[in-house]
């Protein structure tokens, strides 16, 4: 009886490794070979912009990979209630992001989460991205959708009490403050909407805002003002946070007069915007004074085959819908670029 063996081409690499090579070296070589396939589109970042770009490009039959440093969804997963997404009456950010992720995957998009890029090469016909574990990803085009991260107060005590009184996510930490008194810092849509969400847990929410008027939509402002659990301190800022093992008090400064007062508090939630995740891209792309990637109307980032979308780009409005729009345009622009290259 004859015995026929069928070898996977990638697995055959192990047989070709010489005896003095370790199994670990062979395994790394195999992993590098697998990742050396050249994708049509590489998307850096897995928030709404990146996932939308992945949906569009993979559905267009372009081989697509999304490389994400953390888990998929970006900042939207921290949003407790999404009530203004067209066609969806009400949902939360986690569900919306996971639906996008599922769509991208079903269209054939390769998803890589919890991986870090340590080296970029984005000029020329083939772009390369070296991962922390040594693998190399190659693509013909790239879309940067690296998103943003919460902007910090930058006051004494903030770093000390992160995770023990200071938070940047109502959905994540609201339950820890059930029956307690908290401060929400900010005056935009996010601050006032999350202040309303936090009243489901806290006994009292005090909104501290540096200006004498809010930057939120009128409907959002009206809803916050109508909530009996929410109070407002305007033209003021937090100057210092202190306590023992946990946060106990905040020093609040009235900006016009400079007068300071002490408020006993159990928690502070900060919603004063985001800063773009563009560290490491300064020498590669054109960034503005806010470290945002400069793009044109088609999301071109100034290098052939390189595009950007979402909260990492220079723009005025940052909403889930605008991120989705950016991702759509970037994917379509990448597809046009690839067609013109043939």
How is this structure best described in words?
The protein is α/β, with parallel strands linked by helices and 342 residues long. Helix content is 26%, strand content 24%. The strands form four sheets. Strands 1, 2, 3, 4, 5, 6 and 17 form a seven-stranded mixed sheet that branches. It has a five-stranded parallel sheet with strand order 8-15-9-10-11. It has a three-stranded antiparallel sheet with strand order 12-13-14, with no helix packed on it. Helix 6 links the parallel strand 9 and strand 10. Helix 3 (48-59) packs parallel to helix 4 (93-106) and helix 6 packs parallel to helix 7. The radius of gyration is 24 Å and the shape is elongated.
Q: How would you describe this structure in keywords?
A:
single chain, 342 residues, alpha/beta, seven-stranded mixed beta sheet, five-stranded parallel beta sheet, 8 helices, elongated, disordered N terminus
Tell the overall outline.
Answer: elongated
Count of helical regions: 8
Please tally the β strands and state the result: 17
Order of helices and strands: HHEHEHEEEEEEHEHEHEEEEEEEH
Structural class: alpha/beta
The low-confidence parts are 1-34
End-to-end distance: 51 Å
Our estimate of the beta-strand percent is 15-25%
Please compute the radius of gyration using only Cα atoms: 24 Å
Give the topology, please:
Elements: H1 12-16, H2 23-35, E1 38-44, H3 48-59, E2 64-67, H4 93-106, E3 110-112, E4 117-121, E5 127-131, E6 136-144, E7 148-150, E8 166-167, H5 170-173, E9 181-185, H6 189-198, E10 204-208, H7 218-226, E11 230-233, E12 236-243, E13 247-254, E14 260-264, E15 267-270, E16 274-276, E17 306-308, H8 320-341
Parallel strand pairs: 1-2, 1-6, 2-3, 6-17, 8-15, 9-10, 9-15, 10-11
Antiparallel strand pairs: 4-5, 5-6, 7-16, 12-13, 13-14
């Amino acid at each position: 009886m004859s015995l026929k063996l069928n070898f996977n081409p990638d697995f055959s690499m192990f047989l070709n490794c010489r005896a003095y090579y370790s199994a670990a070296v062979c395994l790394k070589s195999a992993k590098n070979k697998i990742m050396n396939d050249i994708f049509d589109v590489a998307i850096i970042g897995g928030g709404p912009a990146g996932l939308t770009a992945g949906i569009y490009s993979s559905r267009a039959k372009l081989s697509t990979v999304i490389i994400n440093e953390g888990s998929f969804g970006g900042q939207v997963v921290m949003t407790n209630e999404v009530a203004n997404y067209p066609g969806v009456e009400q949902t939360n950010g986690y569900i919306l992001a996971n639906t996008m992720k599922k769509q991208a995957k079903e269209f054939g998009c390769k998803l890589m989460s919890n991986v870090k890029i340590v080296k970029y090469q984005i000029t020329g016909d083939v772009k390369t991205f070296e991962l922390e574990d040594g693998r190399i990803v190659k693509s013909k085009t790239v879309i940067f959708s690296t998103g943003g991260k919460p902007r910090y107060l930058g006051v004494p005590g903030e770093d000390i009490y992160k995770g023990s009184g200071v938070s940047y996510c109502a959905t994540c930490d609201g339950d820890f403050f059930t029956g307690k008194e908290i401060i929400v810092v900010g005056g935009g849509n996010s601050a006032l909407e999350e202040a309303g969400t936090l009243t489901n847990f806290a006994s009292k929410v005090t909104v501290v805002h540096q200006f004498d008027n809010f930057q939120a939509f009128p409907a959002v402002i009206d809803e916050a003002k109508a909530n009996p659990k929410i109070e407002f301190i305007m033209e003021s800022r937090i100057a210092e946070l202190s306590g023992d093992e946990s946060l106990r008090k905040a020093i609040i400064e009235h900006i016009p007069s400079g007068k300071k007062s002490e408020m006993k508090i159990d928690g502070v939630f900060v919603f004063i915007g985001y800063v773009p995740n563009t560290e490491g891209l300064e020498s590669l792309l054109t960034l503005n004074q806010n470290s945002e990637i400069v793009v044109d109307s088609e999301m071109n980032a100034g290098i052939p085959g390189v595009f950007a979308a979402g909260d990492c780009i220079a723009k005025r409005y940052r909403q889930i819908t605008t991120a989705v729009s950016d991702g759509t345009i970037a994917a379509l622009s990448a597809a046009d670029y690839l067609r013109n290259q043939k």
